[in-house]
Amino acid sequence: xxxxxxxxxxxxxxxxxxxxxxxxxxxxxxxxxxxxxxxxxxxxxxxxxxxxxxxxxxxxxxxxxxxxxxxxxxxxxxxxxxxxxxxxxxxxxxxxxxxxxxxxxxxxxxxxxxxxxxxxxxxxx
Amino acid sequence: xxxxxxxxxxxxxxxxxxxxxxxxxxxxxxxxxxxxxxxxxxxxxxxxxxxxxxxxxxxxxxxxxxxxxxxxxxxxxxxxxxxxxxxxxxxxxxxxxxxxxxxxxxxxxxxxxxxxxxxxxxxxxxxxxxxxxxxxxxxxxxxxxxxxxxxxxxxxxxxxxxxxxxxxxxxxxxxxxxxxxxxxxxxxxxxxxxxxxxxxxxxxxxxxxxxxxxxxxxxxxxxxxxxxxxxxxxxxxxxxxxxxxxxxxxxxxxxxxxxxxxxxxxxxxxxxxxxxxxxxxxxxxxxxxxxxxxxxxxxxxxxxxxxxxxxxxxxxxxxxxxxxxxxxxxxxxxxxxxxxxxxxxxxxxxxxxxxxxxxxxxxxxxxxxxxxxxxxxxxxxxxxxxxxxxxxxxxxxxxxxxxxxxxxxxxxxxxxxxxxxxxxxxxxxxxxxxxxxxxxxxxxxxxxxxxxxxxxxxxxxxxxxxxxxxxxxxxxxxxxxxxxxxxxxxxxxxxxxxxxxxxxxxxxxxxxxxxxxxxxxxxxxxxxxxxxxxxxxxxxxxxxxxxxxxxxxxxxxxxxxxxxxxxxxxxxxxxxxxxxxxxxxxxxxxxxxxxxxxx
Lengths: 125, 599
Known about the structure:
heterodimer; A: 125 residues; five-stranded mixed β-sheet; 4 helices; elongated; B: 599 residues; alpha/beta; Glutaredoxin; Rossmann fold; 5 domains; four-stranded mixed β-sheet; 39% helix
């Protein structure tokens, strides 16, 4: 590894390290809950989860955490994800394939618009 | 590459390791394999999280949920419940003393955590001690960078202005020590770290070294720059292998990044250090004995003056501070002396790390602002005395300290106040005692330690303490006489006045302070041949209540020395001559018929 010669170089290492450990920060703008019950996994929730993580990583979104949950009882519309953004009602989406994840992250997480054709439920369960 | 979605911190402090952290970590890794979570879960081993009593501890982020007292079986359950299904595992959460609902994130609502102010232990339990990047993410090495952009005198002025005082026990102003060492002329100077933590019940230095080794490295380099030294030594007990390992790894990583060793951050300043292991003699925590030992000689104190600042390691000017003192330095530089001096009291700035042990509910490691009252430490942070017993005393300052009784629970903790109460801050061990503790027995225990650890160089400590111990043994075996207490006081005073080093000068302290606050207990032992706490074996005996005994023979069958006589369905009797006071009979009696008495 290159030796640090200046404050800027030290700062760069800090910024990268902060990114790496930001997952531990509980102070986030929102979270995406992926239902990982048996039904969800059978319907492909593992791919959905990977896609959510990958998409957030790709777009450099660090203030949204990804959480896994169990079955929320909507087995026929699995895989489901719940998007909870600060100051907004939680939104549950159904039939979320990796392709749809890209849309949800783009429209909802980044631009605050609900992806209506995938909407299953709005508000607290 | 997918980003980890959950980070699991496992506490790998000494307490949790001995409670079984390693097998839990194995179980965790197996569970992660089993559920194929390698890409979404990141596991980090951290330093001590402080709540050793609840170990092994685990924290799951992003939620920040703490799980306590883990077993490998629990771990699998937590992974499948919490990580896979998102359900909190209630029964493994920490109990919240303030409410019936268990606590999920104790930093929000558990008084053990909310009452603490963490400066020296700021990174412990939060970062991975084996990754320098995590230390840097928490502002690590920014203090060193800042120091190198200042003049050495400016650095010293900042430390002086902070009001930081030595955390090893005596409370000497740290900035002044740095200034004095800098002013002594000499081409070769040394920075020394005393990591020979020897007080029974004190483990903060080990925890800092294990949990945040870079904090010490950074501070020692800053000290080197300030006083004009390019070489340092860490004198550490060989009984701390994990601390040594992590310190060595820290040095290696810091050197790779150019933050330690030759030409630090291109500034032209170089600083390197060497780790010296001590064989565990208590006296080597005394700075001059430590230096003797470091030089390869027998660990015995030298005369002072000359002080180490004038003639220390290899006869050169040496700056010596302990681990906790150094750990305070980086935040003082990054956040400023004004911030630091806003915490604590007028004379004692900042915080102090205490190790709570003995009869207290939450044993572990806490960092609190100076000036906090003992009551807050015992009841709010410590969670009170277990089993509904009454608080009797707290022993501070290790074997050189004294006991503080319940009457002084509201005293703010400062160096001066503790001294006034006849004890000392010491390195910060706090041993709590409840009503079942015999203070004469406690004094005997600590004096026995000092006798055992006396280096033997000077007579008052070597012989005086031995005579004092003999008197205490006489008293606790029921052979005390009038005049013994006066003799103890006279001897104690002489030893304190005439011993060469700080250890000898303070060794009678446990006896003197218990005599001051619990004289009636001593008198009961001598005059009534009675031990009020029913601890001293020769002064106690077990008796069977004839009303309650049904003659079940359980006690006589369990008695290892056949001291209990009695036929079936007849009242039994214990022969005090044969009885060894082992207490086995009390354990088996289902009728509560056996009790311990002291006449």
